[in-house]
Amino acid sequence: QVHLVESGGGLVQAGGSLRLSCAASGVSHSRLNMGWFRQAPGKEREFVTAVNWSGGLPEYSDSVKGRFTVSRDNAKNAVYLRMNSLKPEDTAVYYCTAQQNPLSVVTRVPNEYDFWGQGTQVTVSS
Q: Is residue 87's pLDDT more than 80?
């Protein structure tokens, strides 16, 4: 079973930056598309970004495009999210996710993913 653990969340001023990390364990093969969703209190889980197993074909939500960058290191079984120019509306719990046996094209649909981390809180003050 694949387990995902996020880290790197915290409190930051608007305009600041954070880098989130997600470490995967129990990985038996390399074909994992991986990405990030976020969820604010009282709101639905929202797609942020994802990449395929080779680190290619990145997808970003319109709200973060140009500010956030996703990357992965398969040798470390890790995926990262660099967040720049943070806004108060970015405040949410950020969840790492992985899809096993995927196509090369990533999905934005949360129920298409198979594994989820526990989440890490990101709070952006105005």
A: yes
